[in-house]
Design a protein that fits this description.
The protein is α/β, with parallel strands linked by helices. It folds into 2 domains: about 130 residues, Roll (Urease, subunit C, domain 1), CATH 2.30.40.10; about 260 residues, TIM Barrel. Helix content is about 35%, strand content about 25%. The strands form 2 sheets. Strands 5, 6, 7, 8, 9, 10, 11, 12 and 13 form a 9-stranded parallel beta sheet that branches. Helix 3 packs across helix 4 and helix 5 packs parallel to helix 6. The longest helix is centred in the first third of the chain and has 17 residues. The radius of gyration is 21 Å and the shape is globular. It starts with 5 loop residues before the first strand and ends in a 5-residue tail after the last strand. Bound molecules: guanine and zinc ion. Keywords: Hydrolase, Metal-binding, Zinc. InterPro entries: Amidohydro-rel, Guanine_deaminase, Metal-dep_hydrolase_composite, Metal_Hydrolase, Metallo-dep_hydrolases. It is an enzyme of class 3 (hydrolase).
Length: about 450
């Protein structure tokens, strides 16, 4: 048989989900090898996953085993909503959404007209994702197409796959930060031609939100989506009550905020809607019917004071809305998907809802992959998937090490500690396509 040669071998406690957990204690949803070995082919995809004892003989001479024994090896985390030009907006004081945009974000994003600034920030951005164990992200660029060129070039050079797009905004922002319906259509088409399907990169048509796009521009976004099947769409929806009121004033003919996007053909299975906090039942029904995805951004929703995501309402069995979870840096306050899940737990606590550890880890790996329609490529440790991995240290900090001493081999309890206390310090290593892309300095 024609076999792809083994080019990397990674040993550790392999953990991967094959479906969503039904609730706490549902360990059948995952595959776990206490002493496992993952073999990677020369193409960067997973060849085989199994017990060390069964697979050790398959490691060719000349391939060194990366030994992470005692540490957890999971599929790399997937961040489904993050803003590339906001790495110097994160942690900006004292404002809610519309003021925060005007006072901080719309100032900072203007700097991304400069390709050198964009390139330097793309390098930082990819470093920071990988340091946090995030191997795939869905990213908003700035309004400038060159910001997206810089980002895709950096990701591709590192072997990472991003889904990204140029922000479309043709009103209610500084002149230096606006495009037009026509220019955004042309720039979008150019970027799709240049990047969608180039290496691992994929495009997302990205109208910022209803307030900053005219009807003509939303029409252009719909046209880009129709003309390029397979591209994603991302925007913001129902984040803040002042925002919702303003959308009502700007689109008096629309039934509700969701309907503004619906009228332009922007709902669908490849459409990601950030926040979705204050939706009516009718809006949730429409998102469900169109197979659209609601993206939960807990650290952002708390930091900008936007509100509490209602997972139970969105998940009603008679009209379930697909969901994903994300950082939303720079409204969000952490690049870490672990930290993000810990804050998601607290948001849901305030709603008297739950987020078991298994659900959280499933969500940031396979769940987000499914939300992107990419579960065949990423999000699980299965043959054929990209060998994008995160290695987690169960005793990364003194507090974690101390707490772990009270755990007697209970995997689910260990995972809850990891989700609650873990962050970039837990990420011992990150792999892209089987190649080590980040190795945490011990003692750092
Ligand atoms: N709504 C429109 N633009 C943005 C943004 O950059 N961040 C957040 N959190 N919400 C938005
Ligand atoms: Zn956002």
């Amino acid at each position: 048989s024609i076999a792809v040669p083994v080019s990397a071998a990674i040993r550790g406690r392999l953990l991967s989900f094959h479906r969503a957990p039904a609730g706490p204690g549902d360990l059948d949803c995952l595959t776990y090898c206490e002493d496992g070995l993952l073999l990677v082919g020369a193409d960067g995809r997973i060849l085989e996953v199994g017990d060390w004892d069964d697979l050790r003989g398959r490691v060719p001479d000349g391939v060194a085993v990366d030994d992470h024994s005692g540490k957890l090896v999971l599929p790399g985390f997937i961040d489904t909503h993050i803003h590339f030009p906001q790495t110097q907006v994160i942690a900006s004081y004292g404002a809610q959404l519309l003021d925060w945009l005007e006072k901080y974000t719309f100032i900072e994003e203007q700097r991304f007209a400069d390709p050198a600034h964009a390139a330097a920030n793309a390098s930082f951005f990819m470093d920071e994702l990988l340091r946090n164990g995030t191997t795939t992200a869905v990213v908003y660029g700035s309004v400038h197409p060159q910001s997206v060129d810089a980002l895709f070039a950096e990701a591709e050079a590192r072997g990472a796959g991003l889904i990204a797009g140029k922000v479309m905004m043709d009103r209610h922002a500084p002149a230096a930060l606006t495009d037009t319906a026509d220019s955004s259509y042309r720039d979008g088409k150019d970027l799709i031609g240049r990047w969608h399907g180039t290496g691992r990169q994929r495009y997302a048509v990205t109208p910022r939100f209803a307030i900053t796009s005219t009807e003509a521009q939303l029409e252009a976004a719909g046209a880009l989506l129709r003309e390029h099947p397979g591209v994603h769409m991302q925007t913001h929806l129902s984040e803040n009550t002042d925002e919702i009121a303003e959308v009502g004033r700007l689109f008096p003919g629309a039934r509700d905020y969701t309907d503004v996007y619906d009228r332009f053909g922007l709902l669908g299975p490849t459409s990601l809607f950030g926040h979705c906090i204050h939706l009516s039942d009718a809006e949730m029904a429409r998102l469900s019917e169109s197979s659209s995805v609601a993206v939960f951004c807990p650290t952002s929703n708390l930091f900008i004071g936007s509100g509490l995501f209602d997972l139970d309402a969105l998940s009603k069995p008679e009209r379930p809305v697909r969901t994903a979870i994300a950082t939303d840096v720079g409204g969000g306050t952490s690049y870490s998907m672990l930290r993000t899940a810990a804050e998601a737990y607290k948001v849901l606590q305030l709603r008297r809802q739950n987020l078991p550890a298994l659900a959280a880890l499933h969500w940031m790996t396979r769940g987000n992959a499914e939300a992107l329609g990419m579960a065949g490529e990423i999000g699980s440790l299965e043959p054929g998937r990209w060998a994008d991995l995160v290695v987690l240290d169960p005793a990364a900090t003194p507090a974690m090490r101390h707490r772990m001493k009270a755990v007697d081999g209970d995997l689910e309890e260990e995972l809850f500690i990891q989700v609650t206390l873990g962050d970039d310090r837990s990420v011992a290593a990150t792999y892209l396509r089987g190649r080590n892309s980040h190795l945490r300095q011990t003692g750092a």
